[in-house]
Amino acid sequence: MTVQPEDTRPGGASSATVHAVLLLHPDDNVVVVCRTVTAGETVDMAGVPLLVRSSVGVGHKLARQALHVGDKVRRYGAPIGSMTQSAAAGEHVHLHNLQSDYLHTYTLDSGNAFVEEPTPAGEAHS
Amino acid sequence: MNGYLRQDGRKGIRNVLLVAYLVECAHHVSREIAVQTRDQDVQLIGFSGCYPNAYAQGLMERLCTHPNVGGVLLVSLGCEGFNRHRLAETIRESGRPVQTLVIQERGGTRKTIQEGTDWIRAARSELENVPRTPFDWSDLIVGTVCGGSDGTSGISANPAVGGAFDLLVERGSTCIFEETGELIGCEAHMAGRAITPQLGQALVDSVHKAARYYTTMGHGSFAPGNADGGLTTQEEKSLGAYAKSGFGPIHGLIRPGETTPAPGLYLMDVVPDGEVRFGFPNINDTSENIEMIASGAHMILFTTGRGSVVGSAISPVIKVCGNPETYRRMQDDMDVNAGAILEGTATLPQVSAQIVDLIEAVAGGAQSASESLGHQEFVLTYKTFEASGPACLPLA
């Protein structure tokens, strides 16, 4: 069975306004994308315009402001890791410029797997 | 809501018959019995290992006497280490019909399948006599798991389930959330919600144990699909996962298979105690579902962003999808479109209320999407746990 949300309450959402990005907490320095966005478009970010510099899909993050190496990235008002590369406002913030302060993130392409890296030729095991 | 009354006073929302293999060598015979009797509401569970393990033994005992289970057929090869005598005795003492078929004694594959299917048909007619009883909100135990999370999970599906948990606890139900490895970074906040300072410290310790365990394993609870969906780090995933627990006080910390002493909100510590052994704490989402069910969960609220399709043996799984694009692509597998929150067509409290309504319908017999599609996933692995100390269960 499937339940489709319906708006039946007074004061509930009245129109299907798809926000492009969500600012989850006033202290955050990234916003979350709610619909696919395209580089070059300007979207509304809680009343402030944001020029999108990366085309990304739903659930991804864009920098709210310029971010520098070592900056803590905040989402939900809480730190989610540190910047390893700088990013301009509107740029994609993800694996290429943000890393965990706890555990490495594993992806199929980027490594960090629980798999031993091959030892380079000529290098002895210690 | 209407339940099945068991001899120990607990109430189930389903009346399934289980076929349980006690070693991988008995898996095929058990599956054949279950497939040939699938019209009898039969489900297949089992433990693959040949070596005995207290955790696996305990979980099998808890699962075979779960309120949603009416009777059990145990299938043994005959030489494995699992204590089939003790398991059968536990089931018998619970008042359920139980039969043990030892393949080596019955004369092999063909004869065991025949005897098994005969027993199932007889047991099913016996189960028609299980008394029905009113099922109240205070009888209900609900678990929540997230799987295939993406960047939307933490802002739509997970907080919607958190809101549903708050509503359920208000009505006197018991709610369980879990995966301490996916709460790394949230421990201090969680401790502030504990009903005693000692429990708060136990919650912090459980997350630190998870961080140590995963660090030793060299891999966090983070899959490549999480990154494809916009999640970058473990702590980002954790904050989103934590939203499933709602805002209420935390009443206790339980290990898999332990029971909750009173209604309220509980964290399940799924990471083994002691030195690291036997591999990853939870090898997949299904192992989390099964551990919550072993602690009595009648159903599971399963949130997803990338699009998980799993259901479970024993207890229905309700799918709450946080990503509106995934929902449209995989609608047949989903029960609730929490992505509507992102698209502005529903509010968070509305979706939480819909989840509670759906729980009531499923408890009353309506099939969830995964249930109607025949999903009955099951997995059980080796683990080691110590019993919870008194600080973990202040209400006991």
Could you outline the blueprint of secondary structure elements for this entry?
The complex is a heterodimer of chains A (126) and B (396).
Chain A: E1 21-22, E2 30-33, E3 42-45, E4 48-51, E5 61-63, E6 72-75, E7 78-83, E8 92-93, E9 98-99
Chain B: E1 2-5, E2 11-12, E3 16-21, H1 27-36, E4 42-46, H2 54-64, E5 69-76, H3 84-93, E6 98-102, H4 103-106, H5 109-127, E7 132-134, E8 141-146, H6 157-170, E9 174-178, H7 187-191, H8 197-217, H9 224-228, H10 234-242, E10 252-254, E11 264-268, H11 285-294, E12 299-304, E13 317-321, H12 324-329, E14 336-337, H13 340-343, H14 348-363, H15 369-372
Parallel strand pairs in B: 3-4, 3-5, 5-6, 8-9, 8-12, 9-11, 10-11, 12-13, 13-14
Antiparallel strand pairs in B: 1-2, 1-7
Helix pairs in contact in B: 1-5, 2-11, 6-14
- Using only CA atoms, what is the Rg of chain A? 19 Å
Say what the CATH topology of the domain at 21-99 in chain A is.
Archaeosine Trna-guanine Transglycosylase, Chain: A, domain 4
* Structural class by SSE content of chain A: mainly beta
Molecular shape of chain B? globular
Series of secondary-structure elements of chain A, N-terminal to C-terminal: EEEEEEEEE
Largest sheet of chain B: 7 strands, parallel
- Count of spatially separate domains of chain B: 2
Question: Which CATH class of the domain at 21-99 in chain A applies here?
Answer: Mainly Beta
Give start-end ranges of low-pLDDT stretches of chain B: none
Which term fits the overall shape of chain A? Answer: globular
Distance between the first and last residues' Cα of chain A = 59 Å
Q: Major sheet of chain A: order of its strands?
A: 1-2-5-8
The arrangement of helices and strands of chain B along the chain is EEEHEHEHEHHEEHEHHHHEEHEEHEHHH
Terminal Cα separation of chain B, in Å? 27 Å
The counted number of beta strands of chain A is 9
User: Which two chains have the most extensive interface, and how many residues on each?
Assistant: A-B, 50 and 58 residues
- How does the major sheet of chain A shape up? 4 strands, antiparallel
| % residues in beta strands of chain B | 15-25%
